[in-house]
Design brief:
CATH architecture of chain A: Up-down Bundle
CATH topology of the largest domain in chain B: GMP Synthetase, Chain A, domain 3
Number of domains of chain A: 1
CATH class of the largest domain in chain B: Alpha Beta
CATH superfamily of chain A: Ferritin, core subunit, four-helix bundle
Largest sheet of chain B: 4 strands, mixed
Strand order of the largest sheet of chain B: 4-7-6-5
Distance between the termini of chain A: 36 Å
Helix content of chain A: 55-70%
Largest interface: A-B, 41 and 30 residues
Structural class of chain A: mainly alpha
Largest sheet of chain A: none
Radius of gyration of chain B: 18 Å
Number of helices of chain B: 5
Helix content of chain B: 25-40%
Shape of chain A: globular
CATH topology of chain A: Ferritin
Number of strands of chain A: 0
Order of helices and strands of chain A: HHHHHHHHHH
Number of helices of chain A: 10
Oligomer: heterodimer
CATH architecture of the largest domain in chain B: 2-Layer Sandwich
C-alpha cells in the first residue's frame, strides 16, 4: 500500500530543512566535538530525506527526482514544521552568525528528536513496506540524535546561570511551535486512515513524558502554551524558510541539470 | 552455488569500506546477496547509515570491480531488513580493534524506544583498542563519521573511535 505523496514530502521536508539549518554550524560550532556532531546529525537527516524523496519521486513519476523535489519546489510546496526552519536565535535578533545561540539549536533538536523516535518507531509498522523500511533505519539514527540533544539540554539547563537562562529562553521561544505536531494535516489524516501513517495525537502523552523528564533534570520549566498553532506542514511558512531555500537551492537553480 | 556466483563472491572479496580499509564489504554486512540472472549477476547491497557518503563509492567500487573481471552485473540497493552492526563478523570486529577502532557492542533490539530514552543507560562498556583498559569515557556521541563515537582512554590517555551499535 502506498503512502500519500504529501505525507512522504512532509517527512522528507522536515529532514532536509533541519539538516540544512543545522549544517550552518559546520565550521562555526561552539566546540570542535559539537561542530562534528551536528555535521553528522545533518548528514543523517539529509540521508533520510534522500530516501524519502526517492520514494516520493518514484511514486509521482513524470520525471520527478530527489533533486527536483529538493531543489525545484518553492517554499509554499514545502511541508515541514515551522519549528525546523527558524534561525538559530531567539525572536527579534539579527541574522549574523555571531548572533546564533546554541541553546536554540539544541532545544529544537531535542523537541524534534523526541517526536521522531516515536514517529519512526510507529512507522516501522506502516502498511507501506517501503516507508517502514526507511523508518527502521531512521529510528536507529534518531535515537542517537535524541540522546545527543537531551544530554546537552541537561548540560545547558543545569549548567551556569548564563547557560540556564539561555536554555530557558530557547524553551520559551520554541515550545509554542511544537503545537503544530498535534494538529493532523489532511495528508496525515489520510495516511492514518489507510494504516500507513501514525496518529500523531496518540504520541502526545509519550512525547510529553520524554520532554518533561528531561526538562526537570535540566532544571528548566515548561512554558504555558498560548493559542498560536503554526501551519508549516500545510505550506504556510514563516519568512525564514525562503532564505533557507534560497541558499540551499541557489546553485542547483543557477545550473539546472549540472553534474560533475 | 553456481560457478558464476562463486566467482562473483571471490571477485568482490578484496573490496573494503573506503573509510575503514581493513574490513571487507562482506564482513561489514553491506554485501548481502549474489544471484545469477539471465544475463549476468544481481548483487544486493544495503546501506549502513542513511547519509553515509561512502555508499556511493561502495556501489561504484562493486560495479567497477565486476566490470574489470568481465562479469555483467546489476547492483541493487535494498533497505530491509535494516543493516545492523550485529551482522558484523567476529573477524571483522577483531580487525577493527587492531586498526584502532573499538568494535560495536551488541544492539538491544527488544527494548522499546521510550525505555531506551528514559533509562538513558550509561554508554556501553568500551575497551580501549590500544591498551585494552575499560576505564574509558565518551567525549562525543559523534566522531570522525556518523557511525562512530569519540572516546578517550583514561589509562593510556589516547583518544579513539568507537563504532556505535546500530
Amino acid at each position: 500500500m502506498n503512502a500519500p505523496v504529501d505525507y512522504l514530502l512532509h517527512l522528507a521536508d522536515n529532514a532536509v530543512v533541519l539538516g540544512q539549518r543545522n549544517a550552518e554550524w559546520c565550521g562555526h560550532g561552539p566546540i570542535l566535538e559539537e561542530d562534528i556532531a551536528l555535521a553528522n546529525v545533518s548528514l543523517d537527516h539529509i540521508g533520510q530525506a534522500r530516501l524519502l524523496y526517492q520514494l516520493a519521486a518514484a511514486r509521482m513519476g513524470g520525471g520527478a527526482s530527489e533533486d527536483s523535489l529538493a531543489y525545484f519546489r518553492d517554499e509554499t510546496a514545502f511541508r515541514n514544521y515551522t519549528l525546523l526552519e527558524l534561525p538559530h536565535h531567539g525572536p527579534l535578533v539579527g541574522y549574523a552568525a555571531s548572533d546564533r545561540d546554541y541553546a536554540v539549536t539544541i532545544v529544537r533538536n531535542f523537541f524534534y528528536g523526541a517526536l521522531m523516535v516515536l514517529v519512526w518507531d510507529a512507522l516501522t509498522r506502516s502498511a507501506d513496506a517501503d516507508l517502514a523500511a526507511i523508518a527502521a533505519k531512521s529510528l536507529k539514527e534518531a535515537r542517537y540524535h535524541l540522546h545527543h540533544a537531551a544530554d546537552w539540554v541537561v548540560r545547558l539547563g543545569d549548567g551556569t546561570d548564563e547557560s540556564h537562562a539561555r536554555a530557558q529562553a530557547a524553551v520559551d521561544h520554541l515550545f509554542r511551535y511544537t503545537e503544530e505536531f498535534w494538529l493532523p494535516s489532511p495528508a496525515e489524516t489520510e495516511a492514518v486512515a489507510s494504516g500507513i501513517g501514525v496518529d500523531v495525537v496518540s504520541l502526545r502523552a509519550a512525547w510529553d513524558a520524554l520532554v518533561d523528564e528531561t526538562l526537570a533534570e535540566a532544571t528548566l520549566s515548561r512554558p504555558a502554551v498560548r493559542g498560536y498553532v503554526p501551519e508549516g506542514k500545510l505550506g504556510r511558512h514563516s519568512e525564514h524558510l525562503g532564505y533557507l531555500l534560497g541558499e540551499m537551492q541557489g546553485l542547483a537553480r543557477a545550473h539546472p541539470g549540472a553534474t560533475w | 552455488m553456481s560457478t558464476l556466483v562463486e566467482r562473483t563472491w571471490a571477485t568482490l572479496a578484496p573490496l573494503t569500506d573506503p573509510e575503514i580499509p581493513v574490513v571487507s564489504l562482506r564482513e561489514l554486512g553491506i554485501l548481502r546477496e549474489v544471484a545469477e540472472t539471465a544475463d549476468g549477476v544481481e548483487v544486493v547491497i544495503t546501506p549502513t547509515y542513511t547519509g553515509c557518503p561512502a555508499m556511493g563509492q561502495i556501489e561504484d567500487d562493486v560495479k567497477a570491480c565486476l566490470a574489470q573481471a568481465g562479469i555483467s552485473a546489476r547492483v541493487v540497493t535494498r533497505l530491509a531488513p535494516a543493516w545492523t552492526t550485529d551482522w558484523m563478523s567476529d573477524t571483522a570486529k577483531e580487525k577493527l580493534r587492531a586498526y584502532g577502532i573499538a568494535p560495536p557492542g551488541a544492539t538491544r533490539p527488544a527494548e522499546s524506544v521510550v525505555q531506551f530514552v528514559r533509562r538513558r543507560p550509561p554508554p556501553d562498556e568500551v575497551a580501549c583498542p590500544r591498551c585494552g583498559s575499560i576505564h574509558t569515557v565518551v567525549s562525543s556521541q559523534f566522531g570522525s563519521t556518523a557511525c562512530k563515537a569519540l572516546y578517550k582512554c583514561l589509562d593510556c590517555q589516547e583518544p579513539f573511535d568507537y563504532f556505535k551499535p546500530y
